[in-house]
Every structure is written in C-alpha cells, then in structure tokens.
Amino acid sequence: MPSMRKPALMFAVVALPIALLAQTTPPQAAHNYVATRHSELTQQFEEFLSIPNVAADPANLRKNADFLVAQLKQRGAEARLLTDPALHGSVPPLVYGEIKNPGAKRTIVFYAHYDGQPVTPSEWETGKPFAPIVKQVDGEPRIYARGAGDDKAAIFAQLTALSALQAAHIPLKANIRFVWEGEEEAGSAHLEQILMANRDLVHGDVWLVCDGPVDQTRRQTLIFGARGDAHLQITVYGPNRSLHSGHYGNWAPNPAMMLVQLLAGMKDANGHVVIPHFYDGIAPLGAIEKKALAEAPVNDDLLRNELALGHTDGGNKHLLELLNEPSLNINGISSGQTGARSTNSIPPTATANLDLRLVVGIAPKTQQQRVIDYIRAQGYFITLAPPTRDELLTHAKVAYIQADEGEPASRTPIDLPIAADVIRAIESARGKVILLPTFGGTVPLDAMERAANTRTITVPIANHDDNQHAANENLRLQNLWDGIETMASLIAMP
Amino acid sequence: MPSMRKPALMFAVVALPIALLAQTTPPQAAHNYVATRHSELTQQFEEFLSIPNVAADPANLRKNADFLVAQLKQRGAEARLLTDPALHGSVPPLVYGEIKNPGAKRTIVFYAHYDGQPVTPSEWETGKPFAPIVKQVDGEPRIYARGAGDDKAAIFAQLTALSALQAAHIPLKANIRFVWEGEEEAGSAHLEQILMANRDLVHGDVWLVCDGPVDQTRRQTLIFGARGDAHLQITVYGPNRSLHSGHYGNWAPNPAMMLVQLLAGMKDANGHVVIPHFYDGIAPLGAIEKKALAEAPVNDDLLRNELALGHTDGGNKHLLELLNEPSLNINGISSGQTGARSTNSIPPTATANLDLRLVVGIAPKTQQQRVIDYIRAQGYFITLAPPTRDELLTHAKVAYIQADEGEPASRTPIDLPIAADVIRAIESARGKVILLPTFGGTVPLDAMERAANTRTITVPIANHDDNQHAANENLRLQNLWDGIETMASLIAMP
Question: How do residues B355-381 score in pLDDT, each as one tens digit?
C-alpha cells in the first residue's frame, strides 16, 4: 500500500471549525473515501494478500507483521511487534498499534489476525493461494486468496478506515489500540502468554474482535460469544506394512474398516452425538440471548439451496440454535489411496482428525476425555505416543490419540453498557444489526478477556460464503467496502 | 542386460553326446549358472527394474516391452509385440516369444506381466520406486523397486533360466511360448481381446501363470485357481463447498461421517460381511482341494507376529481357508485433510475405494450389485455419473458409484493330467511343493482359459513379504535364484 497518503495532518484536525466537522459522519467519510478508490484499494489489498501467511512459512508470516507495522506508522500510529521475551522469537509476534487521545474516556482495542489456515495449492482453481485474483460471482466482484476473508479483510478495513477518517479530518475520541495476531489459525497457542507479558499495553474497555463472517443475509452482525474448540487426531492400526488385499483380505484387519466402525458409532443418523455425557454441563442461554436468537434471521432454506444440501443435521433445529450446542466434526479422514492412485492394498494405518466445538460449561479437556473414554469403551487400547510393536501385538485394537490444548467457549452479556455504544455506532453506519449470542467458530475470547482484563464483542465483516479455511477462499468486495464503514464508525466512537 | 551372452549355439546342442547331457539336470544347470553370477544377474535385474512400468506412463511401459523383445531375441526366441489392430496401439502390447521344437508333443505357455501398480514416491524410503537398491533384511539381500516382486521377477527368472539351459547345452523338449502382459495391474482390460485376436499363437496345453508370492514358509507353491476381483469407488456428498466447521458444524451434514456410517455397516466386528447375500453361491471345494488345504502349512501365528497383529479377522478360520471366501476390503478412504494439513472444515465429499474378492460361483457384477443394493437400502440415491445439483438438492443422501468390469474367479482341478507333470518337474528342482486350491490375489485366469483354450496353473516365485502393491516393494534375492531353478525345470519339461 505504498500509495496511501501520509497522515501528516491527522492531529491537526481539532483546530478546524466544529461546523465543518459536523458535515461528515465517520461512516459517510468512509463511504466517500472508498467510492472513488475501488481499484486503488483493491490493488492495495492484493499487495497485502500476496504475502503468504501460513504457519509452515514463518519467514513470510514475519513479512506480514513488518508490513503491518509500517502501515500503522504511515497512519500516525505508534506501532511495533509484541512478544514475550521468554519465547525467544519462536512464535509469530503480535502486531501492535496505538493512537492515543489525551481527552479520551476509554480505550477500544481492535483485534484481528494476519495468519491464515494451511493451504493445499492443488485444490485451488488458480493453484496459487497467494496470487490474488478478482472474479465476478453472481455479478459482483470477489477477491480470491488465502486470508482474503479470514482475516486480512478486517485488518485492511481498519487501516483503510483510519485513512478515510484522516482524509475527512475527523478526530478520534477514544484511545484506539490494534492487536493483530499471527497465530490464530494455529490455535492461538501463545496469545495469552504474550498478552500477559504486555498487559498494560493491550488492556481496553472492550476488545472488538474483528473476525469471521456476517449473517447470510449480509447484514452487519454482532456476536457476544464464541464456541470453543478442541481437537483429537486418532490413528488406528492394521498390519505393520501395506498388504496385498487379495492375499490377506478377509484375514488381516483393515484399519480403515476399524476406523469407520469406531467413528460411525459417535453419531446417530440425525447428527446427534451419542458419546456418553457429550452434552452434559451446557450453560443455558438467558432470556436476552433467547430473544436475540428469536429475532435473528432464519436462513436455513437459503443456505440449503446455496449449498445444494438435500438434508441437514440436527433434527428440526435451526442453524443458529445448533451453534449453541457442542459439535463433533470429522475434519479429515485418510487411509490408503483413493481414486486413480488407489491400489489393491490393506493399508497399515487409518487416521481421522476430529474437532469438538464447545459451549460455555464444557471445558476442552472434559470433552476430549469423553471421546477418549468412548474409544476405550469400544475395546481400544489408548496410547498417547506412537504404539510400540509390543503394544500392537498384545492388544486387538490400538488407538494413538493426539490431543491439543483446545480453547474454551466464551460469552459476553448482550446488555453490557459498552455494548449499547458499540451497537449505536455501528447502526449509524450500517442500519439495524443482528445480535447473536454465539459465534459458531472459535476465537480465543476467553484468553483475551483474562489476559487483557476486558470484555469482547465480535464484529465480523466477511461474507459467509467466503470458503474460509478451505480452497478458493475469497472476499466479496462489497463486504470490504461495507466493513470499512463499520470500522470507521467504531474507530471514531466516543 | 547387454552382457548376457548370445545363444548362438542353442539349436546345436542336439548334436552333443547323450552322456554329456545326462550329467546335468535343468535345475542343476540353473543352480550352477546362478551360483557364479549373483552380482552380474543383480545388475541385469536392476537395469530391467529401472524402466518405469506404471499405467500412467505408457511411453516407459512400451520401453519395457521393447526391452523384453530384444532379450527374447538374444536368447534365440522368435519374439514380437502382440496386440489387436482394433485397439490402434492404445493399450500396452503383449510381449510374445516362441521357441519351437520340431519333436515337441506339447506346448507350454509362460505368462507373467511387466507392468506394476501405481506408485506414490513420497511413501518410498528412497523416494524413487524406479531406482533399485539392494538392502540386507534379516541378513539376506533384497532388491527394492516397483515390480521387483510383482511381476518382473518372474520374467527375469524365465529369461535367466533360458540362458542357463543354453549355457549347459540342455535341449528343450516342448514348444515354449512366453506371453508377458503390460496391463495386468490395470485389470487386464484388453488381455482377452488381444489373446482372441492371436488365438493360434497363444494356445498351449497349459498356461503357467508366473505371478504372486509363494507360501510364507518360502517353499515352492503351486496354485490351481485365483479369486476374482471387482472394484467400487463410492463418493458421498456434503455441502457443495468446504465449510467452516465452527460456523456450520452440527447442521451441515459431514460426508466423512456419512461415509463411515455407510461402510461401518458392511462388516461385523469379526470382519464377516453382513451385506445381504454376500456369501450366496460359493462353489464348494472338492475332496482333493480340501485335502490339499489340510496339508498346507498353517502360518497364521508366524504372520501375526511378523505383521504385529494383535488380532485377525475371520473368527477361528485360518488364512488359507479364508482365501476360499469372497472378501470386502477398503483399499482407501479420503475426505478433507489429516495430520498437519488438517483444517477446521466440513469437507464437500468423501470417497472410498473398495475391492471385492470373488470365488467361483460369484460373478463380478453380481457382487457389485449386492453392495450397491445395500447402499441403496441405507437410504442413498445411487448415481453412476457425478450427481447434478438437482439430484443433490432432492435427495437426503447421494452416492456416486463407479464400478469396473471386474475379473471372475477361476479354478483348475488339481488332478488334471498335465498338473502331475508340472508338479514332478518342479519337485525335481525344489523338493516337495505346496498345493493350494485358491490364490488370494486375482489373475485373469478365466480370460486366459477362454481365449487361449487352455488350463492354468499358477507358479509364483516372489517372497510373501515383498510389499507387493505398496511402497517399498522388494524381492528377496534368494527367491529369484530359487525361481530361476523352478523356471529352468519347467522350460525343459517334456
């Protein structure tokens, strides 16, 4: 974004006559700024998306961070990288920016993340997740690249909103802080540690967590909590080498068959998890959350049509209701080879990766243990390290389980006083917002609240159909333009 | 193998005194020839293994064929490529060789195949399936490369046996023919057609099908039939694009979960197939087959230990008994990504490749249809083409099935007159042989018998632990040296 103008005049605007300032509201300023710069802004966003941002490539992750520090400085913010010295530079740093306002009554922190999910280039239409392209979808332009929707859009919207406010000489009222993480898609393993090491810098009256997609109606959405997430990788064992399926089929146990039988028993035909105690402990929704849910749009038919789904799980419950329950999902399963590379073999192992979404009241370890107990109850010997030959020989069925730390769920009361101001600011930009008690995806809200001594409200801007976490991730450009208005209204709020 | 000597004197040996000829038996000639040439022969075999032989690489498959024609000619055989002109060169040709003997009372045909299973180089220890290396395993040398055991070993043993007989001036008695296929691992789709187009050339009193592994005791084995095989590729559908498992988990059906539930119901905990009628129609073994089975070594405990298996399927039945039953095996299953590349997604599809081994009495189409009927009975809409959007929207569960033509099972009576001569010849070389009614793997015996108007007996030489069809395929070199003696005894038989 080298062509972005320098904010030299930014802190001079307080000297302008009040009458002039009143002419333009923050969202109007953003709207005017964007309206004449679609192609320039698209080009700047492409530059940002061209820097690869996956955990497997730390050098490029660091390039993203350095790039963002420079962008913040160009806009007059104090900016630098934050880490915990105890980590010795081993994890991607936070990008930190601050714009102080001497008269401010409160501090608002904008969280987003600059890292993206792993990529499998061969699955992308272009084969190149970091060579952004713009394509028309249903007559509207979208930009395709890893990170386009999740979550570089939010960062770019905040930077551009700053530029727009500066261009319109609109003064900020609150202290504004930016905390952009580089390890979100890797489970935010060190976020809390880094925040704790920099508590005074990252504290705020509220953290606005700018991540995830808006409602399928494309209306601006505010979310007051998020599901947690915990993962399990399960590997089961057949013969210690691949065997000819003709010479040994019927006799050598097939680990793919073992695994499908193990996983199949975890859910009923409606997608309801039948692992004992799986739903125990769920903290019930309060009256205000239930009211918000009842007022939220029901987009299930629209989505079923869009996704070509002949049925959905969960019986008669709506998607938004189901997001308030824990879930069990097979992220991936593999054994042997499929398609043209399939061979007549009995594979030696079969592996599945599960994610367990959590709600308030169910801790990551608790839910992982319920699944592990279930696997043991199916006759499996459980090992937390690759099994030895002796373990394989002495147990009919062996499962090697790898569990991550997980992330607990979190919930902020919708009637928190500062929430009213946030809602008012956004509605001045975007009209009536949708309030939801629970974000289906996982954001480390719990860690943020503890470490930064704050509360969180989630402000997504991406389109729901952005192929987040998958190949061909994209952002509908109108979501970016709208998001810049949303961010301008929040950056300028009292 | 450029260093192999030219067989210039081959047809002159009839002039040598009978007394001299009687001094050396064919297996002795082979033994003497091999004993002084281990490293030379290993080098020649490596040269053959270096020519890639997978279906995806037709140019190199053809190189194998041309190479073999030259090798046959060097040994004085009439040799050429056989095909059906109607195929217009679109499939790998048969390599054909013939050594006529004017006084011969019968014609013996040696079948083997020069193509190999597909390779996934990253799974190989060397990363290079066509760069053969020799490694010591349990103090014995083995050669590693695709095709080492399956089935270039047999071809190389036949060529070397010819050289050995020639070197010892041992005359042949029967007419000898070689038919080496290039499409066996692709299901021998055109073998019958090419044989039918060349019926007179390929006919023989017996086809000796030189493929597969010997018994786990490493004793020479003769097999009088083979299981058939039929394949199904099953793909089931979730959303039409990968979805974030947080935002849609619980609601969007997960195709991996659908597939595991579908497959899990196909077998019980003992590996017994519970698809209705799966075992209907099996032709029972006769008294002579039962006797052979009863006399065959029971290697189950040895194998369980070797393969680190804590249990085996099939209840109390031995491996050799179970090979006389049909089987259902998952060759591969895949959906989303596992391991480090796993993402928090609901994948759009899940795919499994099944192979169904068949026995006499159950035709390929019959068995495939039983599985398809089962899938339909689980509520699936079956399509034989990729499903349309409309089909996906109007059916709760859709399965796209790809079925191959399959290969029927075959059985030759153990008491066939020519079988006695074959057994006698081999026992002169290798001592007491093991007779088995059914080869677990699949060889297109049925097509051979029909097209070449012959009967088949299978003469394997490879070690059972050769990683056939998998990564790190190998041949125990002692099996090659023994195999050369076996082949010499058969090539010189009356």
Answer: 999 999 999 999 999 999 999 999 999
Q: Which of B212, B244, B328 sits opposite A469 (nearest CB)?
A: B244
Query: B403, B418, B453: which is the final residue of a domain?
Result: B403
**Beta strands per DSSP E along B282-408:** 327-336, 345-346, 349-358, 381-383, 398-403
Among residues of chain A, what percentage have pLDDT more than 90?
89
- Residue A3: what pLDDT? 40
In DSSP terms, B202 is beta-bridged to none
Q: Which of residues 37-76 of B touch A (CB under 8 A)?
A: 56
- Check which CATH number belongs to the domain holding B74 and give it: 3.40.630.10
pLDDT digits (tens, 9 = 90+) for B267-325: 999 999 999 999 999 999 999 999 999 999 999 999 999 999 999 999 889 999 999 99
Write out the residue range of the structural domain in which residue A367 sits: 228-282+325-403
Shared-domain flag, residues B146 and B190: yes
Q: Residue A292 domain-assigned?
A: no
What are φ and ψ of residue A304, in 5° steps? -60, -40
Whole-prediction pTM: 0.83
Q: Would you call A81 exposed, middle or buried from its count of C-beta atoms within 10 A (0-12, 13-18, 19+)?
A: middle
Distance CA B218, CA B214 (A): 6
Strand partners, A208: A110, A457
Q: For residue A399, what is the domain's CATH number? A: 3.30.70.360
Number of cross-chain residue pairs from A and B with Cβ atoms under 8 Å apart: 370
Is some CB atom of chain B closer than 8 A to the CB atom of A474?
no
Contact (CB<8Å) B239/A307: yes
Same domain? B245 vs B195: no
Give yes or no: residues A261 and A239 share one domain.
Answer: yes
As a whole number, mean pLDDT of residues B64-86 equals 97
* Number of alpha carbons in the 13 Å side-chain half-sphere of residue A137: 15
Residue B173 domain-assigned (yes or no) = yes
Does A303 fall in a domain?
A: no
Q: Considering only residues 191 to 210 of chain B, which have any Cβ-Cβ distance to chain A shorter than 8 Å?
A: none
Q: What percent of chain B clears pLDDT 90, i.e. is strictly above it?
A: 89
Option in A240, A263, A470 nearest B345 (CB): A470
- Residue of chain B minimizing CA distance to A116: B343
